[in-house]
Amino acid sequence: MRVSADELAGVVELFGGLTRDELYEALSELAYREGEELDGADAGETLDAAIKSYHLVEYERDDGEPLLVAGPRAFPEQPPHSEDLPHIMDVAERDVDREELGAGVRATLEDEATAALAGADTDRMRELVDVSYDLEAWAPVDCTAIRNRLDARLDD
Question: Where are the domains of the chain?
Fold first, then answer.
């Protein structure tokens, strides 16, 4: 079973956020309902790509296990049979502090911008500029300084 980054975002959005293990459980349930098996390696690659593209972001909780939350680049979609997941899984709906989440995602964006600048990765720099605009619309954060650093290098 294959799912898109937006479908991953749609699944986590059903609960307000899921741990990695819970998301894999949800994907396994969806695959079963489709008469398929979940390819863990493929699902892991899709998950990692969704995090890298900011379709999913990690929210650090006090209990130490981060939640995956629909991110600033996501247009969450519900994959087939996902409406049944809240009834199947023993996971309570979660609330996420948007300001705290936004600040954490901004810090991640800053780190990734620094890495892209150090590696002269212009494709990633362009992508991160786009992410910075999406992030500002998604959470109460200001990414102007990050964007200016990236734009200055891209203009060289």
Answer: 5-88, 98-155
Query: How far apart, in whole angstroms, are the C-alpha atoms of residue 80 and residue 78?
Result: 7
Out of 49-53, 91-95, 134-138, pick the least confident: 91-95
Q: Kind and range of the H or E element at 85? A: helix 85-88
First and final CA of the chain: distance in angstroms?
A: 44
Does this model's pTM top 0.90? yes
Q: Is 120 left (phi over 0), alpha (psi -120 to 50) or beta?
A: left
N residues, the chain: 156
Q: What angle do CA 7, 112, 56 make, to 5 degrees?
A: 15
- The domain made up of 5-88 has a fold known as Arc Repressor Mutant, subunit A (1.10.10)
